[in-house]
Design goal:
This protein is mainly alpha-helical. About 70% of the residues lie in helices and about 5% in strands. A four-stranded antiparallel β-sheet has the order 2-3-1-4. Helix 9 runs antiparallel to helix 10 and helix 10 runs antiparallel to helix 12. The longest helix has about 80 residues. The protein starts with 12 loop residues before the first helix and ends with a helix.
């Protein structure tokens, strides 16, 4: 059994020293493997890092400037969250269609000609743009940052400033479009509401004009008319009853035993009726003149008075003619018959009959008017409900129309505010400048990571090799395997030829490691040159 040292079994603290010694022995045996892995990875990643192109970063800060006109004077329509609107603006500005124009104007696709497609270049540009919110600490966003990374230091600053201008223009366009769309929508709603309002107003006007007698305002008129008509009908009925009572009295006088008035030889009643006819005729003619002046010739009272005058004249003429006949034939007529035939009473009874008939003729039209007004009163609640419903709809539409009109005026003012850039807007606070040094890659970090990564790889390979190695390298291992104590150990004898052979082998391994590292670095360089 061979070994470079003699291991002795100890207990206690010596066991820890034995384990540490064993680990150090393993590291010593595989030191070249660990060193070569570390050097190989270090060289490969160093070559790879130096082959990576320099990436420059330029950024610009845009300030979110509040409206110059206070909201209490001109309320703004664009009241959404700025962070949310910024996300929408980012999606619009960084869309492939918008970025395609930027790629073509800056010649980014020509720089990658033959390596990547236009879509790949656009996606790469999208990934190279970073939009970050700058929070001043008050909870409300006051600014945001736009950064662009690229290979050309002069170009990255120019592209960053162009992106800032695109954000400013897109924000202004979006705000103007929103206010314009809002004003247009309100105008359409206003016209529709105005049409409905005019329709309701036309319906109200039509109902009131075509049904004026059924309106609630006509109710007092109908009630007053009904009261007057009932009073007139009652007065006429009372007059009819009075005339009928007078007629009954006159009829009883004609057929009673009481001596009737006689006629003198001159044809004039002995009771002095001739002078009465003349006086009554004068009164009726005076009354007729007053009625014509007051009501006109067609009024029922005028016609009634005219008929009374005609009857009175006829009575006077008939009595005058009858008096002569009575004087001539008076001796031949019995006394009882003279009492039963009294022309004066008959004339009065006929007059009463005519008056009763005239009064009855007046009741019919009055009763028709009474029915008319009663039917109109019954229709008033129906039309009152219709008018109330239409009026309620009209009031609601009127209120809605007024609100829309105010909102439309506010939208027009807000639109003018945005057009003249007096509202909330974006302003470049810090424009992008040409960077003096690249922002990436961090070559020192990559090389250091390669060194430590190679060492860890070498240690892992050493552990795997040690686990697969079944050789006995110490007296303790031999004693544990054989179960017997070791009497002595003979050190390994190595000749000069074997030493030279080992050295050549080590040099070959070293050269192979360098060659592998060079190949690995070349592959990474190819990859970096194609994709970076």
């Amino acid at each position: 059994m061979g070994g470079n040292s003699t291991l002795q079994a100890h207990t206690g603290d010596q066991a820890g020293e034995l384990t540490l010694t064993a680990y150090l022995d393993v590291a010593r045996r595989h030191k070249w493997r660990i060193i070569l892995c570390g050097i190989g990875m270090f060289v490969s990643l160093t070559v790879f890092a130096h082959r990576l192109p320099d990436i420059y970063r330029a950024e610009t800060v845009i300030l979110v400037d509040s409206a110059q006109v206070p909201d209490k004077y001109v309320p703004t329509i664009n009241t959404g969250d700025i962070a949310g609107r910024l996300t929408t603006l980012e999606q619009q500005v960084l869309s492939p269609t918008r970025l395609k124009k930027l790629v073509e104007s800056e010649g980014l696709y020509e720089q990658e000609s033959g390596k990547r497609t236009e879509e790949d270049v656009i996606r790469s540009v999208q990934k190279s743009i970073v939009v970050e919110v700058v929070n001043p600490g008050g909870g409300k966003m006051g600014a945001f940052r736009i950064a662009y990374s690229g290979r050309r230091r002069e170009q990255v600053a120019r592209i960053a400033n162009r992106l800032a201008q695109m954000f400013i223009e897109e924000n202004l366009r979006a705000r103007v479009d929103q206010t314009e769309d809002t004003a247009q929508f309100l105008e359409e709603q206003l016209q529709e509401t105005k049409r409905q309002l005019d329709d309701k107003e036309t319906q109200l006007r039509g109902i009131k004009s075509h049904n004026i007698m059924e309106l609630p305002e006509s109710k007092p008129y109908h009630l007053e008319a009904l009261a007057n008509l009932r009073t007139q009908i009652q007065t006429i009925e009372n007059k009819i009853q009075q005339d009928q009572r007078e007629k009954a009295v006159l009829q009883s006088m004609m057929f009673s035993d009481t001596e009737a008035p006689t006629v003198d030889v001159d044809g004039i009643p002995t009771g002095g009726l001739g002078g009465g006819y003349q006086t009554e005729l004068q009164k009726l003619e005076q009354k007729l003149s007053q009625l014509k002046l007051r009501y006109g010739p067609g009024h029922p009272d005028v016609r009634k008075t005219e008929r009374e005058i005609e009857r009175l004249k006829a009575k006077a003429s008939s009595e005058a003619a009858g008096s002569d006949t009575i004087v001539e034939q008076q001796p031949a007529i019995p006394a009882q018959r003279q009492k039963r035939r009294n022309p004066v009473l008959e004339a009065q009874i006929g007059k009463l009959d005519e008056e009763v008939q005239d009064q009855k003729n007046l009741v019919g039209p009055l009763q028709s008017q009474l029915t008319f007004h009663e039917s109109k009163l019954e229709q008033i609640p129906v039309f009152e409900q219709q008018i109330a419903r239409l009026q309620s709809d009209y009031d609601i539409l009127k209120l809605q129309y007024t609100g829309l009109l105010e909102k439309e005026k506010a939208a027009e003012i807000s639109h003018a505010l945005e057009v003249h850039q007096k509202g909330e807007k974006f302003e470049v606070l810090d424009p992008a400048v040409t960077p003096l040094k690249p922002a990436a890659p961090n070559r020192a970090l990559i090389s250091t990571a390669g060194l430590f990564g190679g060492l860890l790889l070498g240690i892992a390979l050493a552990v795997m090799a040690e686990m697969n190695d079944e050789s006995v390298r110490s007296e303790g291992e031999a004693a544990r395997i054989m179960g017997k104590p070791v009497l002595c150990s003979v050190p390994q004898l190595v000749s000069g030829k074997e030493i030279r052979k080992r050295r050549l082998k080590g040099l070959g391994i070293f050269a192979g490691t360098l060659a592998g590292s060079a190949v690995f670095g070349a592959v990474l360089s190819f990859v970096s040159g194609r994709f970076f």
